[in-house]
Fold each of these.
Amino acid sequence: MDILLTLEQLLDTFERYNLDIWPMQIIAYILGIIAVFFAIKRPRYSDRVIMGVITFMWLWSGIGFYLLYAGPVYKPAYILGALTVVQAVLFLVGVFKPVMSFGFRLNIFSVTGLLFITYAMIVYPVLGYFIGHVYPQSLPFGLVPCPVTIFTFGLLLMTDKKVPVLYLIIPLLWAIGGIMPVSLGITEDIGLIISGVLGTAMIIYRDRKKS
């Protein structure tokens, strides 16, 4: 196991991961579209469905990617995977006992959230393609922590109830930790850093204003 990670090791890990989990990439996009649809249209049980999608993405990223694939290559990934699973459990509580209400509204918070979601689902892979991270050496939406974190902040900006602080701690740490992949050459993760810092600041400001 290595303590230091190289870009080559990271891209090789993504390649093995993408090839082994196909067609989960398609399913992840379907789930993402469902979550956005439910946030905008707000049908019955929309909050539980959205939290369920977020929970699945964090749980899969923690176990499927970090523990099973990244861990054997990069020793700290086991710790990162455990924290990702902890975050998934926190979101899972929101499936059975919703504490937030999702819904798109024509304000700066929802619009920014929708921009984050668009970045995670569309801009992120397109940027990766032009940078040279072409499938299967690309970061799949909804199945690795970086785009999942951006997507999560996007949805959390679309809530009309206060976001529990516990929901923000680990995603913010992941966003700040984006400095490492950016330094290795995963420059699309600049959006991860921006979404985490800006998203957390906006959510805290919005929730304090409501109080």
Note: The radius of gyration is 16 Å.
Amino acid sequence: MSGITAAKSLSRMKCVCLFMKMRFVIANLFLLFAIQHCIAQKEILSQPCRNSLRKATVKAYLDEINSKSGLVIEYSSNNLQLADVVETDGNEYSIGQLLQKVLKDQKVRLVEKNNKLILAPSSTPINPDDLMVFYMIFGFVKEGEGKEPMIDATVTETGNKIGLVTNAHGYYSLSLPEGNHQLLITYSGYAPKVIDLSLHANTRLDVEMSLSPALREVVVTHENVKKNGADKIPGDLNADYNYFLGENDPLRSVYLFPGVLNVPENFSSMLVRGGGPDENLFLLDGTQVYNPSHMLGALSIVNQTALKSMQLFKSDFPAKFSGALSSVLDVYTKDGDMQRWRGEANAGVFSGSVTLEGPIVRNKTAIMGSFRHTWPQPYFGLYQIGLKPDFYDIDLKLTQLINKNNKLMLNFYNGQDQLNQTSVNVNNLHKWGNLLGSISWNHLLGSKSFINTTVNYSQYHNLGGYAYTLLGDQEEAVQTRTLSVQSSIAQWNAGVQAEIFLSSKSRLNTGIKFNHTIIQPLETKVSLHLEDGGGGFTPFPALSFNESSAYAEIEYKPSSKFIVKPGVHVSYYQYSDYVNVSIQPRVYAAYLFDNKNQVFAAYNQMAQYLHLVTNPYVGLNADLWLPSTAKLLPEQSESFSLGYTFNNRKGLTFSLSGYDKYLQHVTNYANGSSYFINNKNWEQNIESGKGWCYGMESMLQWSARKFSLLVSYTLSWSWRQFQDINQGEKFPYTYDRRHILNLGMVYRISRKFDISGLWSFSTGDAVSLPGYIYPDFDMAQQISNPDDLLKNYRFIYQYTGVNQYRTANFQRLDAAVNYHSYRTKGFQYVIAAGVYNIKGSPDQYSFDLLGSVNTKSVVLETNYTYYNVMPYISITLKF
């Protein structure tokens, strides 16, 4: 019976999938038919007008069109007021423009059939838009000096307030009615550009922007509704107070946004809106990065000088994204200057970096290279006892302009980390690194379509080792052994993305992607010394899976005040015999009340096939990636967001938003389980459960001539529930920090000097503590002195709940003084001096509990500061 039931279930699943595919095909055929019909009608209306009349009856104009243009217009005298007199001025370039005046207020509708126009009867006057001839104005917005494509530059037709922003490659395409128009192109930090044009055919217009005089205090943006709910993070955002030991890291700006949490003891570092560290998708030039951090998350792999743009998605998720439940961080690096060589170098107490970019062949081929490495650490070691870091980054990008419609880009990144951690009873070694490569082809297909084709490769490896002591019969140290565990993951991707401009008000974003992933989940080695990745590891069979996905999303923008984006992402996943089809609907809508106030709403369903589980017994960097299986189902989320933003266009912005998120199939190690698993039962060691996350976020930014202020606040709740943990009752997630507050300030003493400060605060983490303890008198526990209750007893810990207690609050205070020189002979430098973590506040707490036979107990709180109070100085040279 079970076999029959399974067969029926499989048959039903196949029918559902077939039905969904058929429905998708039918919908696309209908859309294609509608588009083709619209194109045929517009082609007729765009035919040249040969009008010799200036004032005549409707019938006279229609007769002249039929006799001189070769076009047949059929109509019934009962449907039209043929005797009405119409005036024209002779400036009508097309039949559509002429018919707008001739058929004004006539109760007819336009029907195209067999290359003829039929004026059919209608109960309402004809819509002038049906007679308009639209043409595309399209091209790229670039920096005038280096020809770097500008992401999210605003292109607006000033008369009708029709506008959009450029895509990730600087491309725009705007549908406008035939006639005279004025375009306004704006981008923060650049002088606005106004272009007058007379549009009578599809026209390519590439725009080059010039830097405006430095106005650091106020940024004025043009009125337009946001096309998504992303937080845009320029490379210099909050650059005055997001230093880490002299490193101006763009990812640290992300940590200042509400809903984003930086956890230094977690190697993946970032947690968003109550989600886990594995629920964030980090993309570097379209390639997924599995661990984008150095120094326990204090620094990212992105060098600020190589950054072009960065967007954080946590409220809405465009349909092209998948594979993460909580956030997407989409990062693009510079293409390289096509005109001249330039660069930037930075030297601080911790590391040094240099970035160079310039033309190999001017206006044809450009290269950008960035390198960073830690210095030898005598100074760092004075303040950070027990922590010895070493890392490097190499980032290269080659851009080739084949012609005005085609561009190739090659990307390469390699970064490696090694971190030794020593303290009382601690001797850990951690090594990890990323290797990325991609080739991307941008192709401009006509005036309405932009296509981007990519092939990507991403590899991440991770090794963690720790030393432990074996005790003899009298609890004396006999031998030291080390346990080393290494894992890796590699992924190949190939995909095509297209943007198709359907009309002046709508755009279709669509694409397909295929990926193959290979996970080497666990290799272990027990030896006398900490291993650095050599041979002798016990292998674990590789786990591999395939995923195919497609997406479609419509951007409909009826005016500059309103936008709605419905979309769907469909994926097909296969691991061994397990198959999963995921349909993930998304929708985003925003409305601009006036040039200051805007609201938005978003609904998202997301799926994630990779699970990250962190072993609770092997110290830091114990991350293990695992694929979804029939038992370990894909993680899923369903989220709602509602938000409001205020922007007075004079330097003051305020945002307020709320969210509610439900998680399914999130993972945790089962009770009593750990890394020591084998290829037969590893799924049984992983527990699958539910999660709930909800909260409120607000952010205020104010920039004036002398003073800037940033305040972000998060109020949130995050819960987890597993059937066999905490007796099936829900409990707070480990990083359920109720309140998070960031306060940053900058005071500009002059154009050269400024002082800055940043204070970060959050409530403590949720932890588990035993409800009571009792001694174990089993002689195997080697109790040597029953009278010494707190030292020699081996106690049994009885837990009555999970994460029912809180650690102390966390806070950190940083301050800096910055000097900005004037640019002289092409050179400019910035000197930053400051103190990181002035109060030396701990960023991790742990607890232990000791007790007695008389049920008396003592709770001991210990704290650990990964980065203690640390003065620094750094110099950045731009040339």
Note: Residues 294 and 300 are 6 Å apart (CA to CA).
Amino acid sequence: MTEATAPGAPDRPPIEHPWSQAAEDVLRALEVRQGSGLDQRTVGTRRRRYGPNSLRAAKPRSAWRILVDQLRSPMVALLAAAAVFAFLLVDWIDGTAIAAVIAINAAVGFFTEIKAARSMEALHRLGQVTARVRRDGRAREIPAAELVPGDIMLVEGGDVVTADLRIVAASKLQSNESMLTGESAPVAKTLQPVAEDTQLAERTNMLYKGTAVTRGSGEAVVVATGLATELGRITELVAETEDEATPLELRLERLGQRLIWVTAVLAAAAGTVGIAAGRDMVEMLQTAIALAVATVPEGLPVVATVALARGMWRMARHNALVNRLSAVETLGATGVICTDKTGTLTENRMAVIRVVLPTGDIRLTGEAAGAPFEAGGRPVDPRQHPGLREALEVGVLCNNAELSGADDPEGPDAVGDPMEAALLVAGERAGISRQELIDALPEEREEAFDTDTRMMATFHRHDGGLRVAVKGAPEAVIAACTRVRSGDGDVGFGDPDKQRWLDTNAAMGSEGLRVLALATRHGGSTDDAPYSDLVFLGLVGLDDPPRADVREAIARCRSARIRVVMVTGDQALTARHVALAVGLVDDGDAEVLPGDALKPIDQLSTEERERLRRARIFARVDPRQKLDLIALHQLGGEVVAMTGDGVNDAPALKKSDIGVAMGQRGTQVAREAADMVLKDDAFGTIVLAIEQGRIIFDNIRKFVLYLLSCNVSEVLVVTVAMLMNAPLPLLPLQILFLNLVTDVFPALALGVGPGDPRVMERAPRPADEPIMTHAHWVAVAAYGALITAAVLGAFAIALLHFEMPTRAATTISFLTLAFAQLWHVFNMRDAGSGFLWNDVVRNGHVWGALLLCVSVLMAAVHVPVLAQVLDLEVPGATGWGLVLAFSLLPWAVIQAYLQFWPAAADLATAARREASAPRD
């Protein structure tokens, strides 16, 4: 293809029907060599011509859209009505003041929400998919968005396909194309052209954007990117949708909508009572509107977004990248963690430490130089030990990992499966180079590892014939062998001999080693079955020490009443040893159940379900059985987190409530299916993420509790005064001012607090627990009543005892309510937490909000223009004494309650007790 003949539209592919042309012709048309790829100059030209390799995703919310959204809330509508009403009555001061309130409120919401929105966009960029390509003759990893037509892409099992590709080289390549075709079975790929009119599902020489490579490896040339791909054409047919709200945001929205109706009733009742009592109708209408505005918690959606986004950033700093916003809130309710063993509970730094042969037990020392192999305390030279050398050669041949820098004093860099890399390192220590061995014994065929057979085989040319190298699970390999390599040659391998080796395997597993069996065969053809007539060579024991921080993380899970379940494909004894080492189980509670015990729920009795739910270790588990385990715990009402790293783990990651993929060793398919990716593959990171999830939910609950109790106090102060036929303790503009200043900023600060350090010492909340339970509504009423009593008390004393003018008394009630609401923020600490050291006191944002609010209140009293607008005056020493005494009174009562009756005051416990229900 020349640039002159290339299609001009960026949404059209540069070559038509590539599946109907030979691979060589496609490469020629795209002017690229398979061995070297594109050069950077050509890449730049094509990127300008075809644009980025991205679909037309929903555009980020613009600043203008965010600003307009601030003006579309019910509260703004009420304020606007109040402003219009004031202007109609030629009350220019009140009308202007209300308009200013609208502007200030919109500004606060705008700057808060835009920061959260941009934070979310930045987090999504952290999770961008990469692609491996060959450019300028070198393999490199680039962002998938930078792919251009003509790029030579390297693919292997576990990769997500990020452009439309024509395959030019393949080895056992298969892909899952269900996303495009609906066919769930993997599709085997070939190089041969197919007819031009072949349906998409039958184009066996193509890989399509959005599908997943499930097996094998290969090379392919990019033939379409972005909207020119098949997936891009489909997305063009889908209408642009709005951003999906999280379940928590939807619950908050429903709560706000209900409160609007309550607001209308309360405001109408207050206005009616005032008018019936003979008060000025205009003043009562203004008061009713102000009360309606005060009751609506306008900040609910903003604080939810800010809290969730901030929580995602905290998790990202701790190596947990959350893919979906809704996962943040779900994490807080997680009650069961199903985790694999290798790399999550262990360090995934495998090393071969034993090779058990029919002729003896050989151990590898930790010394890289000198004599790394020894038997019975004496050094062993692999060159003089045919059995050891042959076993190590099989481990090196039957292998897809690569080593670089083998001579590096700090050890070689490994690319590939850590277990296979460990076999290569052991071979290097014996003087066996994989590249030299492959040059001498070229590979003719590979039988990839399969979860059904639990074995892998490679066929190699050797002395005019074939040599087959096999490795896999000891039970599987031993069962497939008919002979054993002994010091006297190959001898029969009967059932008693096999049982002895199985016992040896069990003994090695009980030491915590991961065990592989090695076998070989000479002769035959590449068409022969790989696992027949094998000669058993021995067992290899690999050490993978537990992570140092896992024991502490599991202990935290226990204190948080989170059940940790090990789900591994390894053998039972190895799993049990690791579980004991990390403190997952005790000696008396170390039963290991096989994966075969996991069946569909309708095939299990009640007793079997209970036994499986109590089990902490499952061994030899396949991907299908993971689905049954998740369903079992979910039926019991648990929120389940499941870890995974392979292609076959994707269904389990999708089915679980929280799918957790490994960022270091996980495949792209697993990472795409997961809700959260662990950048360090560490179990402790999952626990930290759950802690953040709990903190976020608690913070939002505190915000709602604080805001509603403050709003209720404002309504009660005015309503009770009118019922008592007393002067109004608050004027309409004063109510609006309080709603803007003392409500919003402390509430926002509560929403982003560090959280209670004891949050992991309590049981997880039920997944369906509402934000505001009955216990919380009772607390709102009690808090609001206390603040109301204090404000009306100060107002009455100012009027009756000190005989202050109404304006001065109103100033006292206004300031008492304002400061009572500010001090009330400290009542949001958890019951039983320290009086002087708790999550609210430790929250720097709270102190900043209080400083800002106090400064604004001082300005409202002492700045003449503000004082005139709000109808306030300087209270004097007596007035300030009343304000401080009565504003501190509710705080003192509630603090005493929290300090001396923590069990009764623990709203979280009451909420969980209220929301809990019998579970299956």
Note: The chain is about 50% helix and 15% strand.
Amino acid sequence: MIDPVRREYNQFFSDEKYNQFIDALNRYYNFPVKFRVAETPVFVGHDLKQKLLRASDSIVDILVSDELKKKTERAIPKDLYVPNEDDHTLFMALDFGIVKSSTGELQPQLIEMQGFPSLFCWQDFLSNRYREHFPIPENLNSHIGLSSAEYQQLIKRILLNDHDPAEVILLEIDPLQQNTAIDFVVTKHYTGIEPIHIGDLKREGRKLFYSHNGKKTQVKRIYNRVIFDELNARKDLQLDFNLTEEVDVEWAGHPNWFFRISKFTMPFIKSEYVPECRFLSDYEHFPDDLQNYVLKPLFSFSGSGIIFHVKKEDLTSIPSEEGHNFLLQRKIQYEPVIQAPDGLVKTEIRLLFVWERGEARPRLVTNLARLSRGEMIGVKFNMNKTWVGGSVCFFE
């Protein structure tokens, strides 16, 4: 989207250089990346950057409201409530699709939001590898107001909170088998935090322990990456600790915020950057143009259960008492904006925030981008395509 930078990048690019780049990603920590990394970063010019910042501010204004906790109490399923919730989320992500406005200008539109960590360490690592292999101007930065070294220090401080790294764990289900495992590997190298399988935690009263290299260590702080959807689906797991039990640990990302700041929150946000979004239970009459909406279950993750081509029978088949657990959200039309050698590509930009204790608002620190040629963003819509996948934005 910064034309001179894009032209220079594409002239330099070759399949051979891209393959060398991917090989370097896989060899750096001797751990293969399990998802497709795109051939290019996204170069975001000043105007679109300012719109992304304004859009974020308008959304954050709602999230810092004193009313947020009251409005989102119902968002947390009663059987999944985790004790010792903090005053606000530590991590936040806002996903924006890039569209063309009625006046022909590029504009961000909010697609999803979550009070949950994303690939905070991988994105720094990825941006540094892009710089090593491709021409990225020095005046473009993937972080907001931070160098890579400053960013790494910030993330380390937030995750450890003055604890010995051995007393802090990254908690996940079979962490090194997850698609996002490379982020866990980078996190360990940046911070010293060990990724631990939830089934390997042992509880003794209110204390938690894990063993690594034969040494038993008490857990003082948990960097939580467990998604309840996946946990509930794994009936095979033998657990000595359930997330909903009250134990003596700090949470780096309390699990309740995954539900509070989510699809559930979107109907409360009125902004030119947020498409129309309502609970199904709020409709007396459904819209006539259902082809312009998507149906989303509130309590699902990674796109599961979403209906992109909505029919009236999809809505009427949902019992009225369950309508408050579904959203109708107006579709957006992604605008292909990234020039690949063989056409234009769509993009979605995820802005990543941290909200430190004592601060009035969350702080935008970095980003993630995803490129798509398919109907939607996501792997299943981009099989066997090039210039698609995970990436990062460099901002003017």
Note: The longest strand covers residues 343-354.
